[in-house]
Each structure stands twice: as structure tokens, then as C-alpha cells.
Specification:
Elements: H1 2-46, E1 52-59, E2 62-69, H2 74-84, E3 91-97, E4 100-101, E5 116-127
Length: 129
């Protein structure tokens, strides 16, 4: 009887150890992914010169990535993205950083506090005539 109890305890410990191993392997894969993403970000940032910003801009036609001078005007960024992503240049577009609309478009990227790397969203707000 005592041997059966010991065997059951050993089996329970084995099952717990297997579950912990699976959890650790999953955490390791997640950490490896995080390291790969961080290394890619570092590589991108190494290519950026002082006074430049890497912009990742979500658009109606997919993601646009580009490096701009900090002194670039919002209107210039919008014009370039619309052209490169083949968006309808008759539409009206607005650029957002999170919930913040980057207005007026005559202001520069740096005037909004954007540095080194920023994620923005280009939103179509209406059609031109």
C-alpha cells in the first residue's frame, strides 16, 4: 500500500515537472522572439542619423516605413506617404500619433516631440472634388 502511495506521488511530481518544463519552454520561445524584435529595432535605429526619425505609418493601403528629417513638415510627410502608397491624392488625409492629431500640418515632426522612431496613422477624412 505504501509503495502505491509513493508511486502516485512520484507520478504527480512527474506531471507537475512536465507542465513546468512546457511552461519554461514557452517562456523561452517568447523571450527569443522579444530579443529578435529588439535586435531588429536596434538595427533600424543604427541606420538613423542624428536629427532623423524612423516613421512607421499605418495607411489604408498598408504599412509605410520611412526615415524623415525631424524638421520635415507634417504636410510633406503626408504628401510622400500618399504618393508612395498610391493613395487617392484627391482625398483629404490627417496624421495621428496615438489619439493626437498632428495639426497644423505646417508644423514639423520635432515640434510634436517625435524622436528617433514613431508609429503614426494616416487617416482619410474626406474626398476632394
Amino acid at each position: 500500500m505504501e509503495n502505491i502511495d509513493l508511486l502516485q506521488q512520484a507520478e504527480a511530481h512527474l506531471q507537475q515537472a512536465e507542465a513546468e518544463l512546457k511552461s519554461a519552454e514557452s517562456a523561452e520561445r517568447s523571450a527569443e522572439h522579444d530579443v529578435a524584435v529588439a535586435l531588429e529595432e536596434l538595427k533600424e535605429l543604427e541606420e538613423i542619423k542624428p536629427h532623423e526619425i524612423l516613421l512607421e505609418i499605418a495607411t489604408p493601403n498598408g504599412l509605410f516605413k520611412g526615415i524623415f528629417a525631424e524638421s520635415a513638415k507634417i504636410s510633406e510627410v503626408i504628401t510622400i506617404v500618399v504618393e508612395k502608397k498610391k493613395l487617392n491624392d484627391k482625398d483629404t488625409f490627417e496624421l495621428f500619433h496615438g489619439e493626437t492629431e498632428l495639426q497644423p500640418t505646417s508644423r514639423t515632426l520635432e515640434s510634436f516631440g517625435l524622436k528617433r522612431k514613431a508609429k503614426l496613422e494616416l487617416v482619410a477624412t474626406g474626398s476632394g472634388v
